[in-house]
Amino acid sequence: MEDSLDYIYKEQKELSVYGGIAALLGWDQMTYMPADGAAERAEQTALISRLSHEKFTSEKLWNHVQKLMNPNVLGTLQKKDKAVVVRLQKDIEKSRKVPSEFVERISKTTTLAYPAWQEAREKSDFSIFLPHLEKIVELEKEYCGFIDLPGPRYNSLLDDYEEGMTVDRLKGEFDFLKSSLIELLEKITSSEIYEKQHGFDKKVSVEKQREICNVVIEKMGLPRNRSRLDVSTHPFTTSMGYDDVRITTNFERENPLFSFFSTVHETGHALYELRMPRDEYKNTVISDSPSLGLHESQSRFWENMIARSKSFWNLFYPIFKNSSPEYFKDLDIETWYRYVNQVRPSLIRVEADELTYCLHVILRFELELELMNDKINVPELPGLWNEKMQEMLGVSPANDREGVLQDMHWSGGSFGYFPTYAIGTIYASQLFYQLTKDNPSIYDEIENGNFTNILSWLEEKIHKHGRLMAADEIIKKVCGEGLNSKVFIGYLKDKYYDLYDV
Amino acid sequence: MEDSLDYIYKEQKELSVYGGIAALLGWDQMTYMPADGAAERAEQTALISRLSHEKFTSEKLWNHVQKLMNPNVLGTLQKKDKAVVVRLQKDIEKSRKVPSEFVERISKTTTLAYPAWQEAREKSDFSIFLPHLEKIVELEKEYCGFIDLPGPRYNSLLDDYEEGMTVDRLKGEFDFLKSSLIELLEKITSSEIYEKQHGFDKKVSVEKQREICNVVIEKMGLPRNRSRLDVSTHPFTTSMGYDDVRITTNFERENPLFSFFSTVHETGHALYELRMPRDEYKNTVISDSPSLGLHESQSRFWENMIARSKSFWNLFYPIFKNSSPEYFKDLDIETWYRYVNQVRPSLIRVEADELTYCLHVILRFELELELMNDKINVPELPGLWNEKMQEMLGVSPANDREGVLQDMHWSGGSFGYFPTYAIGTIYASQLFYQLTKDNPSIYDEIENGNFTNILSWLEEKIHKHGRLMAADEIIKKVCGEGLNSKVFIGYLKDKYYDLYDV
Predict the structure, then answer these.
(1) Do A241 and B33 lie within an 8 Å CB cutoff?
(2) A446-454 — which CB contacts under 8 Å span 24+ positions?
(3) Across-strand partners of A246?
(4) What is the tens place of the pLDDT at every residue in A220-269?
(5) E strand or H helix at B248
(6) CA–CA separation, B261 and B353 (whole Å)
(7) Are A47 and B17 an interchain contact pair (Cβ–Cβ within 8 Å)?
(8) Distances in Å between the alpha carbon of B229 and those of B165, B232, B266, B421?
(9) Of A18, A40, A243, the CB nearest to B242
(10) Three-state DSSP class for B355?
(11) In this structure, are strands B237-241 and B244-249 parallel, antiparallel, or unpaired?
C-alpha cells in the first residue's frame, strides 16, 4: 500500500512536470515564437502530449490506483490521500475510455484545421474551413460514444469542462437567461440614454496602456516574482508551474479598455492558479480548478463585478486621467463610468459588453447542441449563426469573419467549452452577492484600492478547495445554492436600470 | 536492415524534438521566466534530459546501430545513411561510457553549484563556491576516467567540445599564441597612440541600441520568420528547431557597443544553425556543428573580421550617427574606428578587446589543465588567477568577483570549454584570410552592405558540411591547413601595427 501511494504521487509529480512543459510550449507559440517555428512546435507539443497520455493511462498506474481503491485499503487512508486516490481513479478511468489511436487522430485533424480556420477567417470564406469542421464534428460524436454519459450526446462534451453539468440543467438556466437578457436589452436599447450614447474614437498609446495594466496588476496583488504579463492575439492565462503563472493581453484593439479589462480578467484567473492549496496538494490532481466555469468565475468576478463598478472607477479614474490627461480632457468621471458600462449589441463575443456577452455564448451553445443532436449540419452553420444573431442581438454580420468564423475553439475540437463562459459569469455574480453580504464595507475597500479582504475571501471560499469538490458544490457551500442565473439577472437589473434610467 | 534504418531515423527525429524542447526551457529561463519559477524549471529540464539520455543510450537503439555497423551491411548503405550510422555509433558509444547514475550525480551537483556561484560572485566570496567547485573538479576527473582517451586526462574533456583536439596540439598553439600576444601587447601599450587613447562615457539609450541591432541583423541576412532577438544577462544563441533559432543580447553594459557586437556575434552563430544541411540531414546527428570551436569561428568571423573592419564602419558609421547624432557630435569616423578597435588590457573576458581576448582564454586553459593534472588544487585558484592576470595582461583584479568568479562555466561543470573560444577566433582569422584570397572585392561588398557573397561562401565552405567531417578537416579543406595561430597573429599585426603606428 505504501508502495502504491508512493508510486501514484511520483507519477502525478511527473505528470505535473509534463504539464508545465506543455504550458511553456503553448505560451511561447502564442507570444514569441517566430512564424516558421510552427511545424516543429506541433511535433514538440505532440510528443509531450503523447508521453503524458501514455503515463496517465498506463496499466501500472491504473493497477496501483485500483489497489488503493479497494475498500479495505481506501478506508485506512488519510483524508488527503483518499481524496487524491478517488479523484485520480475517476480521471484515469475517463482517459482510458478514449483509445490512443483516437487521440492521435483528433490531434492530427485539429492540427490541420487550425491553419485552415485562420485562412478561412482571414478571407472570410467558410468553405475553406467547412471540410475540416465536418471531420471534427464527426470526431466529437465519436468521442461522445467513448465517454457515453447518460442523456443527450452533448452531456459527454460538457462534462469535460464542467464536470457533472448536463444539458437538461444548463438548458433550463440558459433559456431563462436568454429571455431575460433579451427583455432587458430591449428596455435598454429603447431608452433615451441609449439613444444618446456614443463612443470615443481617441486612442491611447501602447505604452500608456501597458503602464495602467501594470498598475492594476500590482493593486490586485499578483506576485511579480511568480508571474508575467506578455502580449498575444487573444489574451490567456497559463501555468508553467505553481510558481510561474503567466497572463497575456493585447494592446492593438480599437477600444483602449480592451487591454485593461482583459488584464484584469486574466489576473483573476492567475490569482486562482497561484493560490491553489500548495503544501498539501501541489503536484496532485487536486491542485487544480474543478471546472472551467469556476475558473471563469474568478476572472469574471474581477473583470465585471469589481472593475466595472463605480467604486473601482472612483479609484482608477484619477489614475487613468493622470496617465493620459489628453484623453480625459472634457471627460468627467460620470461620463467615463457610463462609457465603461455601455451596452451595445455587437458582433464579436470577446468585445461584447457585460450584458450582451452571455447571449453570444448561448448562441454557440444552441448551435453545438443541435449539431450533436443531429438536428443541423455543418454547412448550415453560417446561415443559422446570422439568423440567431439577428434574433438575439438584433445585429447581422456582414460576413463570416465577423460571424461564424470569429472563434478558434471549434478548430481545436473544443465543443462544450463555450457554456463555461456563461456559467462562470453567473457564478461570479453569485459570489459577488455573497461577498457584499459577508462584508458590506467592500465598496469602500475597492475605492481605497484595498483588495486584501477580497483576495482572502476568494481564497477561503474558492481557491483553497482546489479540486476537492465539484464546482457546483463549492458554490453551494459558499452561496447556499448552486448555479442560479436569476442572481445574475438581478445583478444586471440593479446596475443597468440605474445606468439607463429604465 | 530497412527496419534498423527506419528505427534509427525515427529515434534521431524524436531526439531532435527533445532537443528543441530542452532549448526552449533554457531560453525561457534566461529571458522571461519569473524568478520563482527556477525550482520547477530545474525539474522540467532534468526530466527532458533524462528521457533524452535514456533514449540515446538505450539497448534497442544501440543494437540497431550495431546491426548497421556490420561491414557487410555498412558497405551496402547509401553515402548519406552510412555517414549517419558511423556518426551515431561514435556518439552513442561515448554516451554509453558514462553511467546514468553519474549523469544524475553531476546534474544534482551543478544544480546546487550554480546558485552558490551566483551568491559567491555577488558577494565576491570564493569560499561560498569553493566546496561546490571541489566536488565538480572531482566529478570531472571521474568523468575523464569513463571516457579515458589516451594522453593527459584533460584530453577527455577537450574532446567533448572540440572532437579530436589534444592537449599536446593545443599547448603548442597556445604557447605560441600567448608569447606572441604578450609581445604584441607590449608594443602597443608602450606606443604613443596608446598613451593618448581614451574612452567615451556617453550613453546610448536602450531603444537606439535596439534599433541599430535590428539594422545589423537585417543586413547580415538573418531571416526574421525563423529567428528572434531577446535580452538576457549573458548573450547566447539557441535552436528550438531548424526553423526557430534565437539570439539574445544585453543593453545594460557600460559600453554601448557591447550590445552591437554581441548581436553581430550571436547572429554569426545563428546563421550557421539556420544554414545547416536541411533536406538531407535535418533531424539527424549530422545536422550540427562538428565542434564548438568551428561554431565560434562563425560568430568571431562576423564580430571581429567583418564588424571591426574599416569597410564595415564606412557602412555603419553613418547609420550610427544618424540614429544618435548627439553621441557622434565631434566624433569623426577615424576617431570612431580607432575607438571600436581600442586595445586595453582589462579584467573581464566578455568585455575584452579583439587582441587581449585570447589571453583570458589561455589563462583559463592553463588553470584547468593543471587542475586536471593534479598539479594545483581548487583553493589555490583565486591566487593563481590573479598572478596570471598580472603576468599576461598586467592588471590585477581588486576582488574575486572580477577575477576567478566571473564566468559561470565551471559551476556547470564545463571544463574544457574555454579553449574553443580561442580556437574559434583562430579559425575565423584563417577563414577570413582565405575569403579575401578567394574574393578580393570583399571589402567593397562590406562597405556597400552587400553580405550575400560572404554568406554563400561560408555556407559552401562550412555550413553545408554539418557534422560530416571534423572541424579541423573542414578548415584544412578550405584553408589548406588545420588550426594555425600564426595566421591569427599575422592578421592582428597587420591591423594593429597600423592602428597603433608600431
Answers:
(1) no
(2) A446/A306, A446/A309, A446/A311, A446/A312, A446/A315, A447/A311, A447/A312, A447/A314, A447/A315, A448/A315, A449/A219, A449/A315, A451/A219, A451/A220, A451/A221, A451/A306, A452/A221, A454/A306
(3) A228, A238
(4) 999 999 999 999 989 999 999 999 999 999 998 878 899 999 999 999 99
(5) strand B244-249
(6) 11
(7) yes
(8) 33, 10, 10, 22
(9) A40
(10) coil
(11) antiparallel
Q: CB-based contact (8 Å) between A12 and chain B?
A: no
d(CA A22, CA A53): 12
CA–CA separation, A343 and A493 (whole Å): 13
Rounded CA separation B49/B43 (Å): 10
> Closest approach of chain B CAs to the CA of A402, in angstroms?
28
Joined grid coordinates for residue A356: 450582451
Chain B interface includes A124 (CB < 8 A)? no
Q: What is the pLDDT of residues B22-55, one digit of tens each?
A: 999 999 999 999 999 999 999 999 999 999 999 9
First to last CA, chain A: 65
In chain A, the percentage of residues whose pLDDT exceeds 70 is 100
On whether any CB of chain B is under 8 Å from the CB of A26, the answer is: no
- The whole-angstrom separation of Cα A419 and Cα A496 is 23
Q: How far apart are CA B267 and CA B218, in angstroms?
A: 10
Please name the helix (run of DSSP H) or strand (run of DSSP E) that holds residue B180, with its range, or none: helix B167-189
**CB proximity B48 to A under 8 Å:** yes
Name the residue among A37, A48, A242 with its Cβ closest to that of B240: A37
pLDDT tens, position by position, A410-438? 999 999 999 999 999 999 999 999 999 99
Residues of A recognised as catalytic: 266
Interface of B with A in 260-279 (CB under 8 A): none
**Which of chain B's residues have a Cβ under 8 Å away from the Cβ of A37?**
226, 240-241, 243-244
Residues of chain A contacting B238 with CB distance shorter than 8 Å = none
Active-site residue among B11, B162, B266, B354? B266
Instruction: Determine phi and psi for A131, rounding to 5 degrees.
Output: -60, -35
Q: Which residue of B has its CA nearest to A241?
A: B40
How far apart, in whole angstroms, are the C-alpha atoms of residue B60 and residue A264?
52
Beta-carbon separation of A34 and B242 below 8 A: no
Chain B residues with beta carbon closer than 8 angstroms to that of A33:
240, 244
Closest by Cβ to A34, choosing from B33, B35, B228: B228
d(CA B298, CA B428): 7
> pLDDT tens for residues A433-445?
999 999 999 999 9
Residue B104 clears pLDDT 90, i.e. is over it: no
Least Cα separation, residue A247 to chain B (angstroms): 12
Burial grade of A101 (CB within 10 A; 0-12, 13-18, 19 or more): exposed
Q: Is A43 on the interface with B (CB under 8 A)?
A: yes
Length in residues, chain A: 502
Report the percentage of chain A scoring pLDDT > 90: 91
- Provide CB contacts within 8 A for A78, sequence distance 6+: none
Which residues does chain B have within 8 Å of residue A35's beta carbon, measured at their own beta carbons? 225
**Do residues A22 and A56 make contact, with C-beta atoms less than 8 angstroms apart?**
no
pLDDT tens, residue by residue, B352-372: 999 999 999 999 999 999 999
ipTM of the complex: 0.94
Q: How confident is the model at residue A1 (pLDDT cuts 50, 70, 90)?
A: low
A201 touches chain B (CB under 8 A): no
- Nearest residue, CB atoms, B40 vs list A20, A44, A48: A20
Query: Which residues, including other chains, have CB under 8 Å from residue B135's CB and lie 6 or more apart?
Result: B109, B113
With beta carbons less than 8 A apart as the criterion, state whether B96 and B62 touch: yes
Question: Distance between CA A96 and CA A302 in Å, rounded?
Answer: 37
Name the closest residue on chain A to residue B39, using Cα atoms: A243
Domain residue spans in chain B?
A: 2-152
Report the residue of chain B nearest A35, measured CA to CA. B225
Q: What is the pLDDT of residues A457-502, one digit of tens each?
A: 999 999 999 999 999 999 999 999 999 999 999 999 999 999 999 9
